[in-house]
Amino acid sequence: MMETSRRRFLQMAGIAVVGFTATPVLDAFAAEHGGHEAVPSVKPGPDGLKAKQWAMVIDTRKIKSAKDLEPMIEACHKIHNVPTFTDKHHEIKWIWHEEYKHAFPSDVAKFMDERLEHVPFPVLCNHCENPPCVRACPTKATFKRPSDGIVMMDFHRCIGCRFCMAACPYGARSFNFRDPRPFIKETNKEFPTRMKGVVEKCNFCSELLAVGKQPACVEASNGILTFGDLYDSESEVRKLLKENFTIRRKQNLGTEPSVYYIV
Amino acid sequence: MLELAIQGSKKYFGWIIALLVVIGMAFGIYRLQLDFGLGITGMSRDVSWGFYIAQFTFLVGVAAGGVMVVTPYYLHHYKAFGKITILGEFLAIAAITMCLLFILVDLGQPMRMFNVLLYPTPNSVLFWDMIVLNGYLFLNIVIGWNVLEAERNQTHYPMWLKPLIYLSIPWAVGIHTVTAYLYCGLPGRGFWLTAILAPRFLSSAFAAGPALLILLCLFIRKVTKFDPGREQIQSLAKIVAYAICLNVFFFLCEVFVVFYSQIPEHMEPFIYMFAGLHGHSALVPWMWTSVLLAVASFVLLLMPEVRRNHSVLPWICGMVFVSLWIDKGIGLIVGGFVPTPLGEVVEYAPTLPEISITLGIWAFGALLITVFYKIALSVRGEMAA
Known about the structure:
Distance between the termini of chain B: 17 Å
Organism (chain B): Desulfatirhabdium butyrativorans
Helix content of chain A: 25-40%
Number of strands of chain B: 0
Order of helices and strands of chain A: HEHEHHEHEEHEEHHEHEE
Distance between the termini of chain A: 82 Å
Largest sheet of chain B: none
Keywords (chain B): Cell membrane, Membrane, Transmembrane, Transmembrane helix
Largest interface: A-B, 53 and 46 residues
CATH class of chain A: Alpha Beta
Mean pLDDT of chain B: 93
CATH architecture of chain A: 2-Layer Sandwich
Transmembrane segments (chain B): 12-32, 52-75, 87-105, 125-148, 160-181, 201-220, 240-263, 283-303, 315-337, 357-377
Number of domains of chain A: 1
Radius of gyration of chain A: 23 Å
CATH superfamily of chain B: Formate dehydrogenase/DMSO reductase domain
Family (chain B): Belongs to the NrfD family.
Oligomer: heterodimer
Protein name (chain B): Menaquinol oxidoreductase
């Protein structure tokens, strides 16, 4: 009996020592990552735009060359502090362009319209109505905002497990393989920069919608992109969808992408 | 009982120190990774999981394989295995600990890992994997420790342990099933998107785990007074034979479906792995080595006179282990990412720091097995004296 209780005591004491010594280490970790940047309010203001499900229609007939897409890519990457890496492995992109055969790999015809074959397709997060990345995330760091259907990222909650990247069938997500801050040309103080070890992607400019503005890429697109509420029958996007044949990326997967392409 | 780990021969301490050196080196490199980020590895935007997650997956199998000695003994009262169940349980503890370490080093923000507990998310398979892995670790620690302590005191283990032992059997199946579900439920990854993935994982686990256990038993018999027993080793060899047979069969089922249906998304990863795609063929020699070793070891294990020859058996077990390690530790993860969902081929190869950290975790596992087996055998030694 004596023997047992002495051992018990020693076991408990051992656990307690580990517990106490771990606290300062954890505190040190916590202190190291205190951010000092002003984070804008995430609550929509009185002028904020509202929708049940934001959606985008991309009119590829208006695209002549990659030059037409550069302004929107630059506008997005600039206001969102997206770094520029020379090493392809570490590349971070929110919106970029791909050839048809890469944007729609399961819908490629052997012989197809020459314009479509060569025109650059803008690609970005599809803000799926049924997003596999949200299903996969173990911390709800990526989530579908109930108010307007945007698939959001909480950069401060993400543990960097990259399950969402494996789950996304569109390659829309990027991971900060290293500290991105030294690689940002000009920091926009209105939007947070990220730290190493977290995932990021397009947020449909939720910070601009909150103050009544259209997404930056739409503003810079010269009419190529149209943005609006998918469930408002009077919206601009619904008008375009009513009048034009559109396709979505990998529709057969059941993710219900909110980005439509007029081809 | 822990004090038994710090009494031993010069050779024992030499081995321990060698392992500690490897672990220390890996820890130093991990600090570099913490500082720089995962960019220190060969992973990329397109191949966003690599060596770490692959080792994790393989080792979940090794841990689950331990159940192949627990089940016959406790469920079928196959008394011969009573001698070695503790070896299976301690192997499982070491393997699961390595799994958890591999997940830890793969996280971009490891200091936030408890977010998984703070914000429990039942729709994420990773949440369930965390539960089953830690649960299995806990079960094996409790069971292994109590059974061994009872043996030392020459008593029967406490009765409350029995339900936990029974629970640990389906739980072992659970850890590898849930781990397979991490992959096979993702819509855009043709290579993983197959219902046979969990059965394949289990069959390879039940071959790799017992194969490693045979190697460990034969090694123990050589360097200590403890003899795990010829019958025990032979029974394990039969289990390996059945499991590798099932594994080859499941693999062929998958190959049939993929190549008869001719659906590109499912064929392309296989073509990349076994023949090369768009001029990229880094995995080809590895994958064929794995297949050849699996088939050869299966044929050899089928022949009773070969299986019964204990100077050949370790070589066959080594072949099984290496084959399945290549299959899961190299092929499985990369195959899920190549080609990318956009149909491009971006290759992956682990970097030197990545391999060093991996080696360090394997060394840590080896250290745990050494210490656990030392304790278990010392307890047995006490009884013999």
